[in-house]
Amino acid sequence: MTTRAMRLPATAARSRTRQAQRRRGNVSGLGFLTPFLVLYVLFLILPLVLDVVMSLFNTSLVLPGLGRFAGLGNYGELFGDSRFWQAMWHTIAFTLVSTPPLVLIPLFFAIVVNRIRRRQWFFRLAFFLPYILPSAVIALIWLWLYEPGYGLIDGFFSMLGLGAPGWLSSPNLALYSIVIVTVWWTIGFNFVLYLAGLQDIPRDLYEAASIDGASRSRQTWRITLPMLGRTTTLVVVLQIIASLKIFDQIYLITAGGPNYATRSAIEYIYDTGFTSQRVGYASAASLVLFVVILVVSFVWLALIQRQERV
Amino acid sequence: MAIKAPLRRTGPAAAVSAPAAPRGAVAAANWRESLFRRAVTGVVIALALVWLVPVAWTLDTSIKPETSTIIIPATWKVSGPTLSAYSAVFSATDLGRWYLNSAIVTVIVTVLTVITTSMAGYALSRGKFRGKGFLFALILAGIMIPPQALIVPLFRELQSVHLINTYWALILPQVPAPISVFIFKKVFDGVPVEIEQAATVDGAGWWTAYARIALPLVRPTIAAVSIFTFVWTWNNFLWPFLAATSPTMMTIPVGIGTVVSGVGVVNALQMASAVLGALPLVLVFLFAQRQIVEGVAGTGLK
Amino acid sequence: MSANTPSPHDRGIGAGGPPTRRRFLAAAGTLAAATLAAGCSGTYDVVTGFTGTDSGAGKSTLVYWNLLTGGDGSHMVEMESYYTRTHPGVNLESTILTWGNPYYTKLAMATRSGSPPDVAIMHLSRIPEFGPPGLLTPLSLDLLAEHGMEPKDFTPLAFNRAHVGGHQLAIPLDTHPFVQYYNTKLCKKAGLLDGSGQLPPVTGPAALLAMLRKLKKVVATPVVCDQVDDPATPWRLFYTLYSQGGGKVLADDGKKVVLDQALATKVLAFIYKMATEGLISANVDAAGGTAVFLASDAALYWEGEWEVDVFQTAKLPFSMQPFPAVFGSGVAQADSHTFVIPRQPSANPEKISMALTMIRTLLGQSLVWAEGGHIPAWLPVRTSAAYKKLKPQSNYESVADRAVYDPLAWYSGSGSDMENYAGAAIGGVMTGSFSPQAAYQEMRQSFEALSKETVPV
Predict the structure, then answer these.
(1) Staple partner for A155: which of A272, B30, B73, C329, CB 3.0–4.6 Å?
(2) Best to test chain C binding among B165, B250, B276 (most C CBs inside 10 Å)
C-alpha cells in the first residue's frame, strides 16, 4: 500500500498498463480453459448428472422422455437382482485372477530383459506389440486359436495326445481362457512401466553392493524390488481399476457366455440398457459400479500419498 | 562401456574384496549363479517367441486357401499361399470406409485433445483468475470418472440432439481428457515463467506466449500425449460401438467386431481382416516406437 | 551419457530424433492419402457423416440388414444377387450382423436414433418388442397390393401374426420349424424304415422311446441334439413337446407367467429319461451336432431345418420329417423370418417403394430360399410343383400351418433373454446333469423375474 503511494507518475502509468494486462491475462486465462471446460462439462459431468437423474426413473431406450418416476425402485430391484451380482462377481473374479500374473510376469520379464544389453528392441516388440492391437483384432485372433478342432491350441493338445477341453464353451473354463487372452494382450504396458522404473534405479547402488560382495540375486532382492515399490503400486492399482472396467474382450469373445458365465458388470449394464432397453435401470447399475471404482481409486490415492510421504 | 562392465565383474571383484572366503568356493557359486541366470534368460527368450505365436499364426492362416484352414490337426504348412482373402475383405465388408472413419475420428480427436488440454494446462499453470483452484480440483476429480460407467446417459444425451451415428458423436465425447490437462499443467509448471514474462513485457499477448514460446518448449509432452491419444482413440471399442449404428459410420475395431464378414468357411477371410485391422497401428508403432514407449513410461512416472 | 540412456541397440526400428519424426509423418501422410483415395473412390459421403442426414446413403441406395449367419446366408446372398442383376439402378448395401441379441440391439438403437436400414430381416417372434414403440413402418394392405403382394399369397399363420391394427408390420419370408433329420442307412439297419424307405412317424412317448432304443442297437447315439453354448435348441425341444401337450407359458403380453408345472415337469422328465438312458447326446455345440450327424455317428438329429445344405453336399443318406408328435398334436416350435421396414425419421415413400419391390423380388426367389431348408411363406412357391419336388425339404411343409411361435412378450423371441435363460436350464436336463424339478424352478424364476420388469416398450 505504501509503496504504491510512493510511485512516481511514470511508473504509475506503467503499473496501470500492467494492471490492465493482468486483467486481460485473467480473462485470457479463463478463456484458455474454456474450450476444455465446455467439452468436459458436456461429456463427463453432464452424463454423470444424467446418470443419477435417470436412475430414479423408468427411462426406456426406445421411448422419448424420462418415463415414469421410480424413486429408489431401480436400486431396490438392483439389490435383489442375482444376475447383476453375478456380473459383479465375474468382474471381481476376473480382477483377482488376472492381476497377479499381470503384475508378476512383466516384473520378471523386465528384470531379466533390463540386464540384456543387446536387442532389447526384440523383447519390447514381442511383449508390447499385442498391446497396440485393437480388441476386435485380438478377439478374432484368439477365437481362431481357441476354435474347437481346427484351432492351433486344440491342434497342439492333440499333438501331445491330450484331449482338449471346451475353452470357450465350458462355463467353468471360459473366464480363465479370457484371462489368458488378457495377459497376452496387455502385459506389454506393465512391462514397459517396469522397464522405466528399473532404469530409474541409480547404477551406483548396484556398484556399491557388488563391491561389498553381494551376489546378483541378493542385489535383486535387496535393491531392485524395494526400489520398484512405487512402480509396483502403480501397476497393481492401474491393473485393478482397468479390470473392473472390463468389457471388450469378454463381449467380443464369449458375448458374456456361455450362459452368462463370463458376463462382466459393464456388459450387464450394456445388456440392460441397450438390449433390454431399460435405460433407467442400467443407469442405477452404472452408478453402483462407479461407486465401487471410486472407492478403489480413493484407496489408490491414499496409498500413493503414504508412499510419497515415506 | 563402463556402464556395461560392473554387472559382469561381480565374480572377481567379490573374490578380491572377501579375503576370508576361499577363492574356489566363491568362483563356483558365481558360476552356478551365472548358469541360473543364463537359464532364466533362455526362458524369457523362449516366452518372447511364444508371445509372437498368435500373430504369426494369424498371418499364416490369412494366406491359406479357405479349404486348407479346416484341416485337423492344425498345421503351419501353407499349400498354395494366396492373397485372395485380403482382396475379399475389401469386397465383402466396408473396410475401406472403416479406415476412413477411423482416420477422420482419430486425427480430429487427437488434434482437439492436444489443443484443448494444453490450453487448459497452460491456463491452470499460468493463470491467476478467481475459481482457478476450484476448477482445477473439478478437473482432477474427473480423472476418477470411468467413461465406461457413463455410456448409458451419454448415449441418451446424444440421442436427444440427434447426433448419434454422426462423426460428432464419435469425436466429441472422446476429446475431454482430464489426465492430459494434468500432464500439461505439470509440464508447464516446470517451465520457468520468466521466458514468457520477457515476451509479455514486449507486448505479446497470452496466445503468443502460449503458442510461440511455451508450446515449443514442451514438444516431447505434446508428442507423448498425441501418440497416446492417437493409439487409444483408434483402438477404442465401447463408445464407437454404441455411437455408430450403421456400418458406414463404424470405425475399424467396431466394424471388424460387429459385421459378419461372410457366410460359410471364412477363417482366412477373418484372419485377413484382423491383419488389415491391425496394420495402421502396427505401422505407427514401428515408426514411433520410442515415443509410444516413452509415453507409456511417462504416465507411470507421473 | 548417463546410465539411463538407451544404447543404439535398444532404440528400435527407425528411432533417433528428427529423422524419425519426418519418416513418421511421411508414413502417416501416405496412409492418410491412401485412405482418402479409398474414401473418395466409392459412394462414400464424408459430409453426411458430419451432417447426419440419410446415414451416408444416396437416393438409389437400399440399405439392408440381416442376421443370416448360418447356411441359409449363402442362399440369401444368391437371392440378393438376383435382385441386383434385375434392378441395376439400385445399389444394394447389405450387411450381416451377428444372430440374436447383438442384431436386435443394433436395430433398435439405430431406429430410435434416426438412422435405421431401409429394410431388415426380423424374426416374427420379435415383433412384440419393436411394434408397440413404433419402430416399424406400418404397411397398408393397399400398398402391399400395389407391389404385387396380397394376404392370400402368404402362409396365413405367419401373415396374420404380423397384422396389427389393420396394418402389416412385417412381410413373412418363411417358416422355420424344429424338425427331425434321420439317417436312412442307420434306420434301415435298425429295421425301422417302411416299404418306401421312409421313417414312419411315431406318436406318443412310449413309441419314441422304443424307436430310440432300437436305434441304440445299431449306433451309439440314437439322437443328437446340441445344447453347448446354444440355448436356442434346448428351448425349441422343450417348447415343442410342451406345446404338443397344449401348454402355455405366458399370458397378458408377458406380464403373467402361466407355465404349467405338471406338464413342464412331465416334459422335462421325459427329456431327462432320454438323457439318463443314453438315448440322446447333447454334449456338443451346434457345429458339433451337425458334425456328429454328418459322420453318421447319430441316427437322428433334432434341430432347425437349415442344416440340410451341409448333408446334401456331403451326399449323406438322410431324410427329414416333422418332429414326432410325442405329447399330443403334431405341432412344433417355429419362427419366421420376415421383412420389416424400420421407421425412418421422415417418411420416404420412394425408399419404401424400393424396399417393397426388393421384398417382392426376393419372395419370387423363394425356391432358392427353400433349398436352404426353410418353408417358404410365399404360397405361389410353397404350393408349386417345383417346391414339392424339393426333397427332403418339402417333407415337413405342412408344419408351417401347425407352427407354435414363442410366447408373446417384449422379452421373448428368437435369441432373447428368455430363450437364453430357459435354454440353459433345459440344456442341463438334456445332459442329465440337472433334475427336471430344478430346471422347472429355474425356468419359472427367470420368467417371473422378466415378467416383473417394467416394460420398456
Answers:
(1) B73
(2) B165
Same domain flag for C98 and C127: yes
What is the tens place of the pLDDT at every residue in C191-249?
Answer: 999 989 899 999 999 999 999 999 999 999 999 999 998 999 999 999 999 999 999 99
Is B267 within 8 Å of chain C by CB? no
Q: Quick one: C286 and C368 in the same domain?
A: no
The tens digit of pLDDT for each residue in C424-453 reads 999 999 999 999 999 999 999 999 999 988
Q: How many domains does chain A have?
A: 2
C357-386 residue pLDDT tens:
999 999 999 999 999 999 999 999 999 999
- C305 and C431 both lie in a single domain: yes
- Residue C227 sits in which domain range? 178-333+407-452
Q: Would you say C376 and C154 are in contact if contact means Cβ atoms under 8 Å apart?
A: no
Instruction: Kindly state the average pLDDT of the residues C88-107.
Output: 93
Q: Which residues of A touch C231 (CB under 8 A)?
A: 259
Report the C-alpha gap between C230 and C236 in whole angstroms.
11
> What is the ipTM metric for this complex?
0.87
Residue A148 lies in a domain: yes
CB contact under 8 A, A275 and C104: yes
Contacts 24+ apart (CB under 8 A), B49-53: B49/A126, B51/A126, B51/A127, B51/A130, B51/A184, B52/A126, B52/A129, B53/A152
Task: Give the CATH number, domain containing residue A201.
Answer: 1.10.3720.10
Cell, residue C220? 451309439
Confidence band of B4 (pLDDT split at 50, 70, 90): very low
Whether A150 contacts chain B with CB within 8 A = yes
Where chain A has pLDDT below 50, the residues are 1-5, 7
Q: What is the rounded distance in angstroms from the CA atom of residue C35 to the CA atom of residue C27?
A: 12
- Answer for the pair B117, B225: CB distance below 8 angstroms, yes or no: yes
Indicate whether C401 belongs to any domain.
no
- Chain A, residues 214-243, CB within 8 A of chain C, namely none
- pTM, whole model, 2 decimals? 0.88
The domain containing residue A26 runs over which residues? Answer: 2-54
pLDDT at C55 over 60: no
The nearest alpha carbon in chain A to B300 belongs to A193
pLDDT of residue A14: 64
Q: Pick from A289, B248, A45: which is nearest to C63 by CA?
A: B248
Nearest by CB to C24, which of B99, B165, B288?
Answer: B288
Using an 8 Å CB-CB cutoff, list chain B residues near C68. 263
The answer to whether B265 touches B69, Cβ cutoff 8 Å, is: yes
Q: What is the pLDDT, as a whole number, of residue B257? A: 93
Q: Are residues C153 and C200 in the same domain?
A: no
The dihedrals phi and psi of A59, each to the nearest 5 degrees, come to -70, 140
CATH number where C249 lies: 3.40.190.10
Q: What per-residue confidence (pLDDT) applies to A102? A: 96
- How far lies B89's CA from each of A102, B93, C30, C319, in Å? 34, 6, 21, 37
Considering the segment(s) B93-259 as one domain, its CATH architecture is Orthogonal Bundle (1.10)
CA distance B94 to chain A (A): 15
How far is A24 from chain C, CA to nearest CA, in Å?
36
Cβ distance of A43 and B242 shorter than 8 Å: no
Reading the block at residue A186, the C-alpha cell is 496387455
Q: Is B2 on the interface with C (CB under 8 A)?
A: no
Residues 154-193 of B with CB under 8 A from A: 154-157, 172-173, 175-176, 178, 181
A63 falls within a domain: no
First to last CA, chain C: 69
* pLDDT tens figures, B110-162: 999 999 999 999 999 888 888 888 999 999 888 888 999 999 999 999 999 99
Query: Does residue B300 have a pLDDT over 60?
Result: no
Q: Is the predicted pLDDT of residue C57 greater than 70, yes or no?
A: no
Domain identity same for C298 and C384: no
